[in-house]
Amino acid sequence: MVPAAVAFNDTSRQQDGQEWVMCLIEAIEKELPLGRKQEWMGLFEIGISGTYECTAGHLKVRMPEVLSMLQLGIISQVTGRPLITMVQAMENYFSEEVLDKNCAEEGCAAVQATSSNHITFHPQLLILHYKRFLGPGIGPDADAGPRKVKHPVSGLADLNMNGIKYGLVGLVVHLGEHMATGHYMAVTR
Fold first, then answer.
1. Of 51, 54, 50, nearest to 112 (Cα)?
2. What is the pLDDT of residues 88-122, one digit of tens each?
3. CA–CA separation, 144 vs 138, rounded Å?
4. Which of 9, 92, 93, 129 has its CA 20 to 30 A from that of 73?
C-alpha cells in the first residue's frame, strides 16, 4: 500500500503500474463524495472468495476479499515452471492447491487441506498484474533485491471470464533488471 502522504500526482517518485492504481484508488476514496466514490470504486472492485477445507470435508472456511486487481503469478505453484500465457496464469491463480495441514476438528485424522479462489463479483475494468519479481536476489546480485522473471507471457485482446467480456485497453511494461530501477512504459490501443 502506498503511504497516504504520497500525492497521486507526485512526479518526484517512481511508481509501477500497481502503485499507480493504488494511488488512484486512495485518491478516489479520499477526494470524492460518497455517491461518486462508490461509482468509481465499482469500476475496479473484484470480489474473491478464498476457500480452505481439510480433505475429510471439515473446516470449510471462506475468506472474502475485495481486490482492485488480480495479481497473477507467472511461475506454476505446482510445477515451478514458467507460465507462458495469460490463460495459464489465470488457471494457476484459480487452481486448487493441496496444503500439508492437520485438521483441527476433533477425531479427524486428515493431514492435508485444499485452498482455492473463486470470483464472487466482477469489476467493470479488469486489471491483471503479472508478478514479475520473486523473492530475494540470488548469487552475486543478492543485494539487488527480488529477481525479475523475464520470460514472455502472451495475452489475449479479448477475454471472456465467467460470461463477462473484457477487451484489452493497455499494458504497462517494465524495462530493466531490478524493481527499483528501469523504466515503465505504457502501451494503449
1. 54
2. 999 999 998 888 888 878 888 888 888 889 999 99
3. 9
4. 9
User: Each residue of 162-177: pLDDT tens digit?
Assistant: 899 999 998 888 888 8
Parallel, antiparallel or unpaired: strands 70-73 and 128-131: parallel
> Which 3-state string (H, E, C) describes 6-59?
CCCCCCCCCCCHHHHHHHHHHHHHHHCCHHHHHHHHHHHCEEEEEEEEECCCCC
Question: Residue ranges of the domains in the chain?
Answer: 1-44, 45-188
* CA dist., res. 6 & res. 181, Å (int): 19
β pairing state of 112-121 and 97-100: antiparallel
Query: Taken in order 171, 148, 70, 164, is the CA torsion positive or negative?
Result: positive
Alpha carbons 48 and 121: distance in angstroms, whole number: 7
What distance in Å separates the CA atoms of residue 117 and residue 82, rounded to the nearest whole number?
21
Instruction: Name the grid cell of 5.
Output: 502522504
Cα separation, 156 vs 15, in Å, equals 25
Residue with more model confidence, 111 or 140: 111
The answer to whether the CB of 30 falls within 8 A of the CB of 9 is no
Q: Which CATH superfamily is domain 45-188 in?
A: Cysteine proteinases (3.90.70.10)
